[in-house]
Amino acid sequence: MHTVNVNGQCEPLDTDMKVGDLLARMALRDRRIAVERNGEIVPRSAFDQVLLHDGDRIEIVIAVGGG
Amino acid sequence: MNAPYKESLTDPLVIGGQYFGSRLLVGTGKYRNLTETARALDASGAEIVTVAIRRMPLTATDGEPGLLDVLPPKRYTLLPNSAGCYTADDAVRTLRLARELLDGHDLVKLEVLGDQKTLFPNMPETLRAAEVLIRDGFRVMVYCSDDPIQARVLENMGCVAVMPLASLIGSGMGILNPWNLKIIIAEAKVPVIVDAGIGTASDAAVAMELGCDGVLMNTAIAHARNPVLMATAMRHAVSAGRLAFLAGRMASVPYRAVASSPQTGLIE
Fold it and tell me: Which superfamily does CATH assign the domain made up of A3-62 to?
């Protein structure tokens, strides 16, 4: 099975899955997030273009309390 | 006669071309919950509030409000930080993610830490990160040591504010080296914001009386027994300290009393 690593956690990868598909499956499409794929930022405008590959490392971040 | 002082916008804090009425900048960490965060921020009167960037927890959080939901964008200018980063690369990566998260917002607080015990800034890494970020179009407010030469280098690189620590982050030890801060203030042409170490209202007032352009704090408010009340105290302290600085204090006369009442015309 092909997988991607999302915030350190293994997620199954569907065929021809784009970043936007993954976010939709995780119900994160409408959240205030930023996404990185293998260390490169994926702009929101490119969510539906960027294809995921087996073993990709995805980081999804949010703003939290801090000083 | 001097003109009476009118609130805020007659004496704005200008950072990177942006005008702010409040000289108190506050963090959003360490509160008990988001309601308390929102109430304390409101009471502080701050317009610039810092946020951290972290991995989104992947456990179900549907419908739960996030920090950004309690920070109305019309009221607050968000200042994402690179807290927790120990290398220039990590800090740059974090702040680029922040810019994407906040729709191109380019005002950031750069901090690159040296070690976990002191959270002192690692200045060589800070300088490296500042250079990359400025080249990349960020307006960089930079957490730095209270070394006037480092502050000058950062200013010359193009940082829009230098933010020396008053004492260790979260320590509440107050202002340990007012003399260094004074040198930095005297030299700097960009705003000098004391960042870290403030414990209570008098510390904030002293920082402003020294001539700092602003004060950034988090724990002093969030870990007060009553954070909302302390936020109010800090608002007044920063404002009072600023006014005292502008007013210019009297000369101190050590070891000799000088009567305020007339010395003549006493009844006999």
Answer: Beta-grasp domain (3.10.20.30)
